Amino acid sequence: MTKILDDDTKFDHFFWISTRAMRLNRSHPSIARDRPWRIQFTFIMILSVMCFMLLVYSIRCDIQKGKFTDASKNIIMAIVALTITYKYAILLRFQESVTSLIRIVHEDYKLAKEFSEEEQRIVLHYAMRGDKVGKFWIVSAFTTGAIFPIKAFLLMGKSYFAGEFKLVHMFELSYPWIFEDYKNTPIIFAMMFLMTLFFDIYSTSMYIGYDPLVPIFMLHLCGQIDILKIRISKVFSDPSDSDEMVREKIRIIILKLQDIYRFIEVIKTNFTMLYEFIMKTTTFLLPLTAFQVTESLRNGEVNLEFIGFFTGVILHFFMPCYYSDLLMETGNDFRLALYSCGWEKHSDLRTRRTILFMMTRATKPLVISTVFYAICLDTFAKMCREAYSIFNLMNAAWA
Fold first, then answer.
1. How confident is the model at residue 261 (pLDDT cuts 50, 70, 90)?
2. Cα–Cα distance, 149 to 257 (Å, whole number)
3. Is residue 123 part of a domain?
4. Distances (CA, A) of 60 to 72, 158, 316
5. DSSP label at residue 114
6. How far is 305 from 327, CA to CA, in rounded Å?
7. How many domains does the chain have?
8. Where exactly are the transmembrane stretches of this chain (predicted)?
């Protein structure tokens, strides 16, 4: 038997991008919640709350002054602050559960080393696809997050070489009167710039670390189902097998299927409310971000930071919808493989009844869901239509 998977086939090895990002922001479920972690977590939360409060204050000031474009910009950042805090809370609340899911994937990789060459290739294929998800996110999140400080430094450099140096903040915020009058003094500017830079790095690490997790889990399940699909197609292929041998093969497949169903239920328990939240916030983030881009184009400018942000917002909900849709299709393919495996020609009534029960169970879609909707491409299309309607209303009211 050819060995496709080596000793480095581990969760942390394949998905090192997500793992390292979560360790950077201290949200990784395997990190001990000891005293040093509590100090780090408190520091992170204090700075995050301060940034959120400043954003809310700026939104109120912008609306009072009729600066709806600036207000929408700050609403976007406030939603981001809420989203990453919610994600951190999910990782804390379901720490043991997420750790268990990671451990299951790791153990499946260990077991896969004893599989046939064809099955090992399937496991490797879906692991590589999971790795690509992490790469998509590091490119999207890093480029979007890096634009804000780079733009600020470039504008300061441009003003310096023009002989009229001025300080440029990362985010255009309104500060309480105590800070508003002194926000351009070097000390206050440095404090505010470092705080917003921390928020930028923290947000980027949360998106890189957290968002690939569920797509990675769904891709792993797709690989496991594909392996079962191959095995069920071979159950009745050897006429010399006794009824007991056939029943034993089916029993092993059923046990693995039950593990897959339990895995999916754990994902639903952990992430249903989060994806409901993401779907609702994305419905508003898309038109708000598109409004920023179109307004800058009307003014003859190119808003690079929000162009990148727009693609990231789409990716934020498209990724889970795409891979949940793939999981649903893989489940349907398995049901068809069950139906066409040749069970009707087998004489053992007990075996035929078992296959029928399996087909009945397989009619229930294998899909991740929000509170009200299945997460799939149809739901993504529905969300986009609602976002476009909101964008048209914003253009009619504020453009």
1. very high
2. 49
3. yes
4. 11, 31, 27
5. T
6. 33
7. 1
8. 39-59, 71-91, 136-156, 187-210, 306-323, 355-375
**Token couple for 377:** 């491409």
Phi, psi at 319, each rounded to 5°: -55, -55
SS percent in the chain: helix, strand, coil, step 5: 80, 0, 20
- The first and second tokens of residue 185, run together, are 């003094």
Which amino acid, 71?
A
Residue-number span of the structural domain to which 182 is assigned: 11-398
Q: Report the alpha-carbon distance of residue 127 to residue 190 in Å, rounded.
A: 43
Among 221, 216, 226, smallest CA distance to 319 is for: 216
**pLDDT exceeds cutoff 70 at 99:** yes
Q: Tokens standing for 299? A: 């003014």
The alpha carbon dihedral of 180, 186, 190, 191 has a sign of: negative
| 3-class state of residue 369 by DSSP | strand
pTM, rounded to two decimals: 0.91
Q: How far apart (Å, rounded) are the C-alpha atoms in residues 139 and 146?
A: 10
Please tell me the distance from the alpha carbon of residue 196 to that of residue 188, in angstroms, as a whole number.
Answer: 12
Contacts 24+ apart (CB under 8 A), 166-171: 169/193, 169/196, 170/196, 170/197, 170/200, 171/55, 171/74, 171/77, 171/196
- 369: Cα within 13 Å, side-chain hemisphere: 9
Among the residues of 299-345, which ranges form H helices? 304-339
Is the pLDDT assigned to residue 74 strictly greater than 90? no
Residue with tokens 């184009």: 297
Distance CA 334, CA 223 (A): 11
> Residue 177, SS3?
helix
- Judge whether 359 and 257 are in contact, CB under 8 Å: no
**Could you give the CA distance from residue 258 to residue 260 in angstroms, rounded to a whole number?**
5
Cβ-Cβ contacts under 8 Å for 384 (sequence gap 6 or more): 286
The per-residue DSSP string of 40-105 comes to: HHHHHHHHHHHHHHHHHHHHHHHHHTT-HHHHHHHHHHHHHHHHHHHHHHHHHHTHHHHHHHHHHH
The whole-angstrom separation of Cα 83 and Cα 54 is: 16
Q: Are 113 and 5 in contact (CB under 8 A)?
A: yes
Number of C-beta neighbours around residue 284 at 10 A: 17
Q: With respect to residue 1, please indicate whether it lies within any of the assigned structural domains.
A: no
Is residue 3 one of the residues assigned to a domain?
A: no
Confidence band of 370 (pLDDT split at 50, 70, 90): confident
| DSSP of 18-48 | HHHHHHHTT--TTS--SHHHHHHHHHHHHHH
Closest-CA residue to 291 (of 278, 309, 279):
309
